[in-house]
Each structure stands twice: as C-alpha cells, then as structure tokens.
Amino acid sequence: MKIHNLEEIEFFYTKFAYNRNVLTPRFDTESLVREAILLIKKHEISTLIDIWVWSGIIPISIWKNVKLDKIIAIDKSKKALKIAKLNAQKNKVLIDFMEWDLLKPFLDKKNHNNIVISSLSRNLLITANLPYVKNEDWINMSSDTKFEPKMALFWGEKTGFEVYERFFRQVLKFRQIYDNKIFIMCEIWFDQKEVAQKFLTKLGFNFSFFPDLMWIERFIKISL
C-alpha cells in the first residue's frame, strides 16, 4: 500500500503514520484511550466501534492494551481509511474498516450490514472523535491545523457540536436494535461542556465528563 507524504508520530507508546489527509494525532486523546481500556476491563466489553477513525490511533491503541473479539472502524474519507489500514497492518491489528457516515448504515433495515449488529456479542463500546470546532473559529486556530483536512475539525455553524448531535440521535435508534449494554466515549472542544450537557440531558442519556491532560473536562462517557 503506497501512500505519499507520510510522517510518523508516537501516540500511547506506539508509532503511527499520518499525513495531511487525516487528523493529526494529539496527546490529549490519550486520556480517552486510557479511560476506554479501564472501562473495557471493568465491564467485559468485547466489541469496539470507532466512528471517524482517521489514522486509527484510538482502536489500535486500545487493542494493543486489551483484547477484543471485534473492532469496527468507520470513516467517510477513503484517504483516511487508507492511512488507518496501513497503521493496523503495521501493528498487526485485525479491524473491519467501513466507509460509512456515523451509524446510519446500521439503522437501515434493508442494509445487509444489519447482519453485523446481530453478530455483535456482549457489551459494546463506541468511541468517537468527530469534528467539533465552529466554522468561524478557523481563523483563530493554531498554524498546524492549516495542514489538516477541514472536515476533521470544522463542521458546525453555531456551536461546533452539530455533528455530535446527529450522532447521538442515531445512537437513540441504534439502542432500539442492540440488546446489550452500550458505552460511548467521545472527545469534544474545550468550551462545549455546557452545550453537550444540555443536549444529552434532553435525550435522557446517563453521562459524565472526564478531563484531558490539562484537566479540562472535554471527554464524555455515556452508558445506555
């Protein structure tokens, strides 16, 4: 698999390849990986679904520290999936990669991928690192973000939380067709705790927040 302009970065004690087609791995996301590993061990979670996988740092880092029966990684970018597949191969991690948008194909009764849901066993963890920055904040971002795909960070007109709102509405429908326990962990922007809290409360979710490396509460943990 030949991919051009690759760089390498260490994340959670593992080296990952990346380029301008994916979100640059950031050390703050290690907080999510750490909590996910603890959660998997505590609740005997056997399956992981990672939404918008980018370079694959989340599912690969988790798998290297705790074994799972099944990992599904979803992204809507063909170029990002190529990078994630490369990193999975380098680290000998078996992942089912799928070019989808969020959970939508799982919810289509006519879609053959509903077979995937019926094959999932025991408890499930969904991880997500979706775009969370308001479009208007592009000008205020650090210079390194200019070399990342805009769709990796910017996808909201008002709060930046719009993609997550769409995702969580799909989670409600997914909950109706998946019988076992579902846990969700996701990363949000530093100023979104209030908007996230309001939206998740409205949906009736059981949730809590936990901090990044700077002790800013920008990770959400949900149990359904």
Spatial gap, N to C terminus: 39 Å
Query: Which value, in Å, is the CA radius of gyration?
Result: 17 Å
What is the fold named in CATH at topology level?
A: Rossmann fold
The neighbouring-strand order within the major sheet is: 5-4-3-6-9-11-10
Proportion in β-strands: 25-35%
CATH class: Alpha Beta
Q: Count of helical segments? A: 7
Average pLDDT level? 86
The CATH superfamily title: Vaccinia Virus protein VP39
Question: Level of helix content?
Answer: 25-40%
Query: Which spans of ≥5 residues are poorly predicted at pLDDT below 50?
Result: none
Which structural class should the secondary elements be placed in?
alpha/beta
Shape call: globular
Query: How is the main sheet built?
Result: 7 strands, mixed
Question: What is the number of domains?
Answer: 1
- What is the tally of beta strands? 11
The CATH architecture would be 3-Layer(aba) Sandwich
The SSE string, one letter per element, is EEHEHEHEHHEEEHEHEE
InterPro entries: N5-glutamine_MTase, SAM-dependent_MTases_sf
Organism: uncultured bacterium (gcode 4)
Protein name: Protoporphyrinogen oxidase
